[in-house]
Write a structure and sequence with these properties.
Elements (H helix, E strand, L loop, with lengths): L9 H26 L10 E5 L12 E11 L11 E5 L6 H13 L2 E9 L5 H25 L8 E5 L16 E7 L5 H7 L9 E6 L9 H9 L8 E6 L10 H20 L1
Parallel strand pairs: 3-4, 3-5, 5-6, 6-7, 7-8
Antiparallel strand pairs: 1-2, 2-4
């Protein structure tokens, strides 16, 4: 029996142990990534206001509106209506980074309007734009009107912020005189994006792209590479680019820098509104 131990397949045992250790390290990495985020808004001054009285008559039966919601801070001894409005369409508000960005922006005094929109069938690109674009514009107009009626905002000027990795740029909104630009965070980039982005006649309007330098686990951000290839003359005209160096797709440890860039874009847009 004393010699049975030497008959074990130690190579197999070592391989299993190494695999288990790798799985353990990955689990710890995922746990640290998830546990560092708060699961709720901690600022007691930030409140959610559902727009229950907002009514919209849609022409397309394939567009489903799940909710309208205004998120803003209630400040004492301060004018309640904000001059800055950010609209987020078709987003997953459960994403922890997005939830913290919403808290940071509203704490700064910016009003966030969440539009929960779903499509009954799977359509993409130009077909989606043609079939749903005008209805989305109609929804935004109605929500802004109702928000003004309830005195959540004082102006109908707004910006879009996209963090859904959607390729859709809502071209029907480019001609909206109240739309002052789009902030797109780590969007998916393909060749069709260029044709959808450059046809902008209003000089006030810009598309602001924000990319992390890296993707998950430190790999190259391929969407950033495609952007640089498709837009070699960025920051000239209607396309503006910001790259957060050393950051990964989750923006872990770089959330404050991301928030600062977004606030800087919004402040520069406010100056254009006043000029």
């Amino acid at each position: 029996m004393s010699f049975e131990i030497f008959r074990l397949d130690w190579i197999l045992i070592d391989t299993v142990i190494i695999i288990l250790l790798i799985l353990l390290l990955i689990s710890v990495k995922i746990f640290k990534e998830m546990s560092r985020w708060r699961y709720s808004i901690s600022n007691e001054k930030v409140k959610r206001f559902p727009l229950k009285n907002c009514k919209v008559d849609l022409t397309n039966p394939n567009l489903v509106l799940k909710k309208y919601e205004v998120i803003k801070s209630i400040f004492e001894n301060r004018e309640e209506s904000s001059k800055t409005v950010i609209i987020m369409i078709d987003i997953n508000v459960k994403r922890k980074l997005l939830r913290n960005l919403i808290e940071g922006l509203t704490s700064y005094g910016i009003v966030i309007i969440i539009l929960g929109i779903k499509y009954k069938f799977n359509i993409k690109g130009d077909i989606l734009e043609r079939t749903l674009g005008e209805d989305i514009r109609k929804v935004i107009s109605a929500v802004l009107y109702q928000s003004k009626q309830e005195k959540f905002i004082s102006s109908s000027h707004y910006m879009l912020m996209n963090y859904s990795e959607s390729r859709l740029f809502y071209r029907s909104l480019f001609t909206d005189e109240n739309h002052f630009g789009t902030i797109s965070i780590n969007p998916k980039i393909n060749k069709t994006v260029k044709s959808k982005s450059i046809d902008i006649s209003d000089p006030r309007f810009k598309v602001y792209y924000i990319f992390s330098k890296k993707s998950y686990f430190g790999f190259t951000n391929n969407n950033l590479k495609r952007f640089l290839r498709e837009f070699p003359h960025y920051n000239k005209g209607d396309i503006q680019l910001s790259i957060i160096e050393n950051s990964r797709k989750s923006f872990k440890y770089y959330e404050t820098i991301l928030l600062g860039i977004i606030i800087s874009i919004i402040e520069s847009t406010n100056l254009k509104k006043q000029s």
